[in-house]
Specification:
The complex is a heterodimer. By secondary structure, chain A is mainly β. Chain A is built from no helices and eleven strands. The chains are: A mainly beta, B mainly beta. Chains A and B meet through strand 4, strand 5 and strand 9 of A and strand 6 and strand 10 of B.
Chain lengths: 114, 116
């Protein structure tokens, strides 16, 4: 198993540009989440999904869209990037019925918005 | 709402020193508590957990005890190694909604550097 994979590893955007951060898992996990990590603030939940076709907002959803068309993939879209979205983004997944909060995290995507 | 507060870092220790990283929490109900570790360039990994009061989680020489009376979950290790250098995050589970199991609340993280 590859676990949770994220692409790209690093990206530089200009203000107003759009992009999609990819996340995929091959463990057949139902739950998937996106977090952003900022210095001194820990990780904050952006969006999450409990299964294909179902998504919901987390703590800081503004400026981000998600969709879940398959169990494996959970892309995060920035429609119009802003400097405040400069951060490290982590995708995570968990299997339904598994130990409650044993989440698998991807290696992260570093995003710089100029 | 739920919140987690960690001691401010960074923390710098010499090899074989004793480590304590403080963590306190605010939560409704009976949350589960976790410590995650993030090594340089990697994602977070679950280090240990405790799911009820007085439980002690342990792994790789690290320990933390769920203290409900003081709402704390302090991380300790008796003798740190250079390889323990990483960022440590305290977290709790909880929240409302269909996916409460995926809703972790994290502390701000504590950078630990261990020098030889």
């Amino acid at each position: 198993n590859a676990g949770v994979t994220q692409t790209p590893k690093f990206q530089v955007l200009k203000t107003g540009q759009s992009m999609t951060l990819q996340c995929a898992q091959d463990m057949n996990h139902e739950y998937m989440s996106w977090y952003r990590q900022d210095p001194g603030m820990g990780l904050r939940l952006i969006h999450y999904s409990v299964g294909a076709g179902i998504t919901d907002q987390g703590e800081v959803p503004n400026g981000y869209n998600v969709s879940r068309s398959t169990t494996e993939d959970f892309p995060l879209r920035l429609l119009s990037a802003a400097p405040s979205q400069t951060s490290v983004y982590f995708c995570a997944s968990r299997q339904q019925g598994a130990s409650q909060e044993t989440q698998y995290f991807g290696p992260g995507t570093r995003l710089l918005v100029l | 709402g739920n919140s987690v507060t960690q001691m401010e870092g960074p923390v710098t220790l010499s090899e074989e020193a004793f480590l304590t990283i403080n963590c306190t929490y605010t939560a409704t109900g009976y949350p589960s508590l976790f410590w995650y570790v993030q090594y340089p360039g990697e994602g977070l990994q679950l280090l240990l957990k405790a799911t009820k009061a007085d439980d002690k989680g342990s792994n790789k020489g690290f320990e933390a005890t769920y203290r409900k009376e003081t709402t704390s979950f302090h991380l300790e290790k008796g003798s740190v190694q250079v390889s323990d250098s990483a960022v440590y995050f305290c977290a709790l589970s909880g929240g409302r909604g269909r996916a409460s199991g995926s809703r972790l609340t994290f502390g701000e993280g504590t950078q630990l550097t261990v020098n030889p």
